[in-house]
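Bug #77: duplicate submission created two jobs. Keeping one. Sequence:
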Amino acid sequence: MSSNTALESKEQVYNPWALTPKEVIDSLHTDIDYGLTEEEVREKIAIYGPNQLKRHKKKSILTIFLDQFKSIIIFLLVIAAAFAFWLGEIIDGWAIIVVILLNTFIGFFTELRAVRSMEALFRLGKVKTRVLRDGSVIEIDAEGLVPGDIVIIESGDVITADIRVVESSKLQADESPLTGESLPVKKNVQAINEEAILAERSNILYKGTTVTRGSGKGVIITTGLETELGQISSLVEEAKEEQTPLEVRLNKLGYRLIVITLVIALFVAISGIFAGKEIYLMIETGIALAVAAIPEGLPIVATIALAKGLRIMAEKNALINRLSSVETLGATGIICTDKTGTLTENKMTVTHLYLSQKQIMVSGSDKSPFSANGQQQNSASDSDLRLALEVGTLCNNASLFEDREGGTGDPLEIALLEAARNAGINVKELNEQFPEVREEAFDADVKMMATWNRMDQDRFRVNVKGAPGTVLEACNSIIVNGEQQPFDDRHRKKWEGINEKLASQGLRMIAVAVKTANDSKGDPYHNLSFVGLVALSDPPRADVKPAIERCREAGIRVIMITGDQVATARYIAESLGIKDDHETSVIHGADLPSNEVLETSSKDTQRILKASIFARINPRQKLDLIELYQKHGHIVAMTGDGVNDAPALKKADIGIAMGQRGTQVAREAADMVLTDDAFSTIVKAIEQGRVIFGNIRRFIYYLMSCNLSEVMVVGLASMLGTPLPILPLQILFLNLVTDVFPALALGVGEGEEGVMHRLPREPNHPILDRRQWLGITLYGFIITLSVLGSLFIALEYLQYPPHAAITVSFLTLAMAQLWHVFNMRSDDSHFINNTINRNPYIWIALVLCVGLLLMAVYIPEMARVLQIVPPDFYGWVTVLVMSLLPFGLGQMRKILVHRA
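Kept job's structure:
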């Protein structure tokens, strides 16, 4: 138990790499077997603070509010208000200020909600660390670590503080973030020279690095800014937050609109002045037009749409780490997926054991009894069966639950332990009888794992399990009734045939082998004695086949990339419907050329691009495949769970990590984490990504057509010399009412039902293409004609005075823009049953906007400021008929387009 010495200042451990583990532990007043007490942790937290490089600064309410004023739009409005006060138009000046404040508060509350939603999502991604406290291993947020904590280290862990290694079993770490060294660095416990540079400190694990292999235990020596990574980060200015691709596109669109609309506004103002209108009125109108033409609500609505999409994805078990991933998801054209745990249940059970003299079946709900040719088999009397089960038990890092089925660790290794237990072998006693003294951890390239287990003082049994092909190559003898017999190429081909037959039935195959050694050194994969094959069943997930069919309908290719055998990969792929256009061919990793070769061989490139199943693939080849797809213009999503998957997850356009069985390295490298590890969740996320992009495109289309109509209305009236159909303050009022609320409603809609029946959009496809710009122009022109028509009717037929006539044209424009929201349904959707009509926010927005318009007409103070005269019955009839004209023509256009 650790010392209870009171802490008054920071404990300094100088050159911990030059001290023995005991010296470091004693210096930090901790205990290797008990850890710190909660009281000691509280004392140390008070002294050292949280384990953070830089505390995530929560965006304050004041900051969010002040950010609303950092806009060229607000700048233009302030100029208009100042100009109004300068000319003595006090009411107009205050009215503009009110509009500024209203816009600001709407932006403030919507952005506040979006920011808080994002902060909540970021909190979900906190890194956890296993630590020994009060004698028990617990998992805590890395922020709560303090010097002196004893940390449990396993392969795949992200190191969250600087740690002195005190126990090590084949421990290796990737230190490239600190040293630039691309190869993993071996870690041990021995003290080294105190002059050793950072890259040579083989007993220290550094914050920000990752464990690529092995396991161990360590004591934390520094946290937060005191770590090596913390000292580096404190010397570098905080990088500017990177804009998402969507934000870049929106900004480009915004800047172009600013230039275009300022030119238009200047032209309108000058043409009006030359037509004899008041200078102040035309300058104010020009400024108001510029404000109206630029969709300043666009970034806010985009943020809300993305934030809502993130929440929906989280509810559907997909946590998004990067905002840009939401947009990219909608363009995904290829999903590269592994097999185990994603396409299959990852719940393995042993079904067969093939030994030298017999095939043993494993049956029954508890996987017992073992039988061969109808005769029950007993591990106590069958030496070969017992040896096979012992190898699978000793060469194993999993553990079983004592009080229930299952265990912790790799599902394949758990299945091996369960098979041994069901055969009557006491797993705990076996490990005590043959204690492990060395482990050669599983290597993805070698495809094998080995342990040295002590038999007596001078002898060790080397237990090996791994891929049948590699294990068979390493064997020169076979165990038959407990005795070694010669094993040549003829025998090897026989066993390769058995392996191929079982694998073609979808069974996961591993081979087990042994040898005896006089020491725990040397190569474990040489001169082995083959024991047998173990077949395991891992059935496909029930939800995968329908999800793959949905992908096919959506134009998304699903490609299986697995380390498993060719026959197993082909069986699972065919059963799930993963296939090529012509035939189900499988490319073996050994036959996969490098990217350098593919660049000079178009035939090989086309063969690989058309293939849908890749077997026996290593991590480097995963990276090559992703690069190949990306070079040919595809947006690629890639699933992974292990340390070796991290480079591919990082390289993919959408890296998808498994939340349940994925390592911390994989989750940190990924753009999306599946909390249920289900393939169908990927498809749901892609669908939501398409919905979000469609919503963003829809509300931009709506905003642009409404804003263009305002510009055209005033511009044409100025050139024709007629009274302005809408006054500057009325433009600003519409800018608030008809832009923000309906656009927000469009931005959070459920989307069209057919989004997964369309091909993925091109990666570089603009938000609005030429066809949509033509639609915007057409709708803007129709709305303009209806407004000018209502003004003409009010002046010529109803004989209204100018202010009353302008009220009619103003209300016509306002109502036309509100009805125009129903033109945002897709051309092939139903007239009544469509996403716009089903969106409750649309109806709320319309009711709110109509209420605000009626208030502007019938509340005297508002009417006076906006220069509105309440219309009579005929005026309202004119407003209703003329405002419905764009809606009617828009619906007719959709019918004609759909029929065509």
